[in-house]
Design brief:
The chain is globular. The strands form two sheets. A six-stranded mixed β-sheet has the order 4-9-8-7-6-5. By secondary structure, it is of the alpha+beta class. The chain has two domains: 69 residues, Aminopeptidase (3-Layer(aba) Sandwich), CATH 3.40.630.30; 148 residues, Aminopeptidase. It starts with a strand and ends with a strand.
Length: 232
C-alpha cells in the first residue's frame, strides 16, 4: 500500500499575458496518516513536479493550503474570496429585481420543475451531469471562465467533468430550459451536512436571469434539505 501519492495532469494553463502555455495540474496529493510528518508527502509532490518539468511544463498549478506549498516553489495567485448567503434570505428576499426575475422564470422560457436529491425545485430543471451534456458545458466554460489567468484548458473527456475524490456530497449539476431542453447553466458543488452548508465551487450561466434562477433553485432545494447557507 503506498505511503503517499500525487498526480500530475499535463494541461495547458492560461498565463498572465492571456496565452495558453504547457503546464501541469498537481492534484490528489495525499499521505497515509501512518506516514505523515515523515517526508513522504513532500517526496510525492517533488516527484510530480520533476515529471511535469521533464514533460515540458512551464507552469504548475496546485489548489492547496497557501501556507504549506510555497516550500515547493508555489506562490499564491488566486484570491481567497468567499461569499455566503443564508438560504432563508435568498428564498424570501422581496425586491423589484427578484419579483421581475420570478415572473420571467414562472411565465417565460425558464418555467419548469425538476428533482434534485429527492426534492422538487421549480422554475428550472436541475439534475446531475450526463455525458451528453459535456460539449455544452465545455462551450460555457470556455466562453465565461477559461479566459482568466490560471484557468486550465479542458476537453470533452468525461472524467474531467465528473466529481472526483472520496468526499461525499460532491455533484456536478446542470440546469435546463424545460421547454427546449437547452442547457443554460451548471455548477460544481459540495454538500456539507455537518455545517449545513452547500458550497458552490464553480458555476456558469447563460445570462443574469438564469444565474438568479439558479441561486433561487439551490436555495429552495437547500431549505428542503436543512441546508442553511449557500457558500461560493
Amino acid at each position: 500500500m503506498p505511503a503517499a501519492c500525487s498526480v500530475a495532469l499535463l494541461r495547458e494553463i492560461r498565463a498572465l499575458q492571456g496565452n495558453w502555455v504547457p503546464g501541469a495540474l498537481i492534484t490528489l496529493v495525499a499521505c497515509d496518516p501512518k506516514y505523515q510528518n515523515r517526508g513522504f508527502g513532500s517526496l510525492a509532490v517533488k516527484d510530480s513536479l520533476a515529471y511535469a518539468a521533464k514533460a515540458g511544463a512551464k507552469l504548475a498549478l496546485l489548489y492547496g493550503h497557501p501556507g504549506y506549498y510555497p516550500r515547493f516553489g508555489f506562490v499564491p495567485v488566486l484570491p481567497a474570496a468567499v461569499a455566503t448567503l443564508a438560504v432563508d434570505d435568498v428564498s424570501t428576499v422581496d425586491t423589484d429585481e427578484r419579483r421581475d426575475t420570478d415572473k420571467r422564470c414562472d411565465a417565460g422560457e425558464w418555467r419548469g420543475a425538476g428533482a434534485l436529491h429527492g426534492h422538487v425545485p421549480s422554475r428550472l430543471l436541475v439534475r446531475e451531469i450526463q455525458d451528453s451534456d459535456i460539449p455544452a458545458l465545455l462551450e460555457m466554460y470556455e466562453s465565461q471562465l477559461a479566459g482568466y489567468p490560471c484557468s486550465v484548458r479542458r476537453d470533452v473527456s468525461p472524467w474531467i467533468w465528473k466529481p472526483r475524490g472520496a468526499m461525499p456530497g460532491r455533484d456536478v449539476l446542470v440546469f435546463l430550459d424545460t421547454q427546449s431542453g437547452q442547457l443554460v447553466g451548471y455548477c460544481f458543488c459540495t454538500d456539507n451536512p455537518d455545517r449545513s452548508y452547500l458550497t458552490v465551487m464553480e458555476a456558469a450561466a447563460s445570462d443574469k436571469t438564469v444565474a438568479s434562477c439558479m441561486v433561487s433553485t439551490l436555495a429552495r432545494t437547500g431549505s428542503r434539505s436543512r441546508t442553511e447557507v449557500l457558500e461560493g
